[in-house]
Amino acid sequence: MHDFPLYFELGWQHICDWQGYDHILFVTALCGVYLLTDWRKVLILVTAFTIGHTITLALSALNLIHINTSLIEFLIPVTIVITSLINILKKKRSPGTIRTTYILALFFGLIHGLGFSNYLKSLLGKSTNITAQLFAFNLGLEFGQVLIVLSILTVSFILLNIIKIQRREWTLFLSSAIFGIALIMCIERFALIHFR
């Protein structure tokens, strides 16, 4: 497929684009409270998010579901606010908390997939056979997501193990900063929702 490199590149550039930083904020809130030694937990979390956004990305790009775009643009920062708030409120991560986080990552992935699909549909135009492009774009998204997760875990490692910041302090700082940014996004985007 000659379009594969193009759509793969568009996928990873889309998720790593600082102008659409809401997805970066979500992945940071989701994974930034973990350590490099928690890589299995992070892998399961990212996989749950991936499954969620792959489902809705495919369904929406293939025009099988239609959701109000302005509502999705509002719900994306809501997912960031909730994820950050969970990080702030939970002092210890019990197995039950971790399971809940996996379920939320899957559910929130469904919402983010709808956000990705709007961008993908604008690229595809009126194309009808989009399976190969959809696959390449999704792989690109995953590649970009892995880059973000590795960057976050590396920064956490440096701060916690070399600079010796307390893990709880780092969690509170990171999650509170992301919470504040996402809350402002929620307020701004709520005013833009067009109910039909």
From TrEMBL:
The chain crosses the membrane at residues 20-36, 43-65, 71-89, 101-120, 143-163, 170-192. Keywords: Membrane, Transmembrane, Transmembrane helix. Signal peptide: none annotated. Pfam families: HupE_UreJ_2. InterPro entries: Put_HupE_UreJ. This is HupE/UreJ family protein. It comes from Mucilaginibacter galii.
